[in-house]
Amino acid sequence: MKINVNLLKTAILAFVLAAPAQIFAQVFPNAPTTPISAPADLNGGLVTFDGTNESFAALGGTVMFFRPTSVDPAGSGVNLSASLTDGNGNSFSSYLWHKVTYTGGSEDEGTPIAGETAATFNPTNLDPGYNKFRVRGETGSSVSSCPSTEYQDVIVFVLPQLDVTPEVNGTELVYCANDVPTGADAITLSADIIADYTGNTNDYPKPGEADADADFTLTYDWYAVPQGGGTAIQLGNTKDLDLATATNPLTPGTYEFYVEVEYDSGIRTKGGRNYVTYGGSTVVTSQTVVVTDTPGTPTISVLSVED
Fold it and tell me: Is-contact 161 270, C-beta < 8 A?
């Protein structure tokens, strides 16, 4: 006789819920709130199906940086842990973990993950963007098991790498040190930034894919790098920068420009992870700025006198 188990009434993952549950017909990652300045804007959290309705609860700890395999062979990953009981006196004997994807306008039921039957699950090499995992519990033995019709999902988001292309705009890219172009002739620095979701094949929203700084809250650091070597000069930390208002004016020389871009700390604290600094430099000759020295006072010498 099968046991009628009322499964997963308590949170199945070992996380602390950050918001009360709300009822949805079908819960999957929607277009995020922009600008994205906090993990909650990315709709990460827990989805619980009680047999009739799905409920969603926002959850901290479900947003991470993309960790390339060149840094760590395991890549980005997260540790998940399912509860040992359903909160109603039933103990789970094994678990069914699935990867859920969204294609063609609807979610599938999840692809079973081979070999994952334990309470803990450590998915690694996660693609940038949304990743959704589902777990069901089983009671009984391998001969006669009773799987749950109820389940819980966890939605995690992996912040993608940023592709950064700095741009230098202006009509006078050669100027005198004491006459930095302003107004219509101003030399301005800007950057084209897109989010790289290489490897992500599902149809969940991909924020920033066309214009990352329109969706994500980012930080910027601009530098001028002397050609031929020398110490980089920090210019400012605004998205768009006018050389006339730079923190440090450029001394005579020839320069190319470099910008470092990071996700704002409200989304994810960088810590000591160097691989989450994204940068690029202008190397096109036509975009090189040449600052010429301002000439001094000419000296007059008397060569000869005719009396």
Answer: no
60, 15 Cβ separation under 8 angstroms: yes
pLDDT at residue 158, as a whole number: 96
Q: Is the whole model's pTM more than 0.90, yes or no?
A: no
Span(s) in the chain for CATH 2.60.40: 22-159, 161-292
Q: pLDDT at residue 141 above 50?
A: yes
Fold of domain 161-292 = Immunoglobulin-like (2.60.40)
Q: What are the residues facing 211 on neighbouring strands?
A: none
Spell out the CATH class of 22-159.
Answer: mainly beta
Quick check: 227 and 256 in contact, CB under 8 A?
Answer: yes
End-to-end CA distance of the chain: 132
Instruction: State the Cα–Cα distance between residues 46 and 137, nearest whole angstrom.
Output: 16
| pLDDT tens digits along 72-87 | 999 999 999 999 988 8
- Adjacent-strand bridge partners of 306: none
| Residue 154 CB partners (closer than 8 Å, separation 6+) | 13, 15, 45, 46, 47, 59, 62, 80, 132, 133
If we measure between CA atoms, which residue out of 208, 66, 222, 70 comes closest to residue 131? 66
* 224 touches 230 (CB < 8 A): no
